[in-house]
Write a structure and sequence with these properties.
The chain has about 170 residues and is mainly alpha-helical. The chain has one domain. It is about 70% helix and about 0% strand. The protein has five helices and no strands. Helix 1 crosses helix 2, helix 1 packs across helix 3 and helix 2 runs antiparallel to helix 3. The relative contact order is 0.12.
Length: about 170
């Protein structure tokens, strides 16, 4: 169980470093294969699939662990800040009495925290890239590109507008 917790934390932090985008919503952690599991980290940084495909050597795992250990407190701090800011924005958007000022203020705080997360992610990613072989770097980039293409297709502005138009057409008089 302890090994699964350690692996979950390492995979979560590694993904954070590899993919700056993702959601910082609380949910259960991940097991060694990248699926949902019990007892992993409490922050979600997106899907963990593909990290096991890097086939890190024992020496690389130790180096990655050292990088992640160095940044662990920053990762936890910014994860919490982003999650809290996202929750505050959601609350402002759903408030019974609409306040543009409150929504804008909450959105600004979230943006600042996401900027900090992006900078930290880029810093960690840069350090980790030096640990990986050229083949592992290529594999990692391919995984990121595939995930980005999926996300762009699923959450593209066109897809959202199309769904919006369909809903309006179905329900408008």
């Amino acid at each position: 169980m302890k090994r699964m917790k350690v692996m979950g934390v390492v995979l979560t932090a590694l993904f954070f470093a590899i993919v700056a985008v993702g959601s910082a919503e609380a949910r259960r952690g991940y097991d060694r294969e990248g699926g949902r599991g019990k007892g992993g980290p409490s922050m979600k940084w997106g899907h963990m699939h593909g990290l096991h495909r890097l086939d890190l050597s024992d020496a690389q795992k130790e180096q990655v662990a050292a990088v992640l250990k160095e940044h662990r407190n920053d990762i936890v701090q910014i994860s919490s800040a982003v999650m809290e800011a996202r929750n505050d924005l959601r609350a402002a958007m759903r408030a019974e009495d609409f306040s543009e000022t409150d929504v804008r203020q909450a959105a600004g705080i979230l943006a600042v925290n996401q900027e900090e997360r992006a900078v930290l992610s880029a810093e960690i990613y840069s350090e980790l890239r030096g640990i990986l072989t050229p083949e592992q770097q290529e594999r990692m980039m391919h995984t990121r590109e595939r995930r980005g293409m999926k996300m762009r297709g699923k959450y593209s502005p066109e897809a959202g507008v199309s769904a919006l138009d369909q809903w309006i057409e179905k329900h408008a008089n």
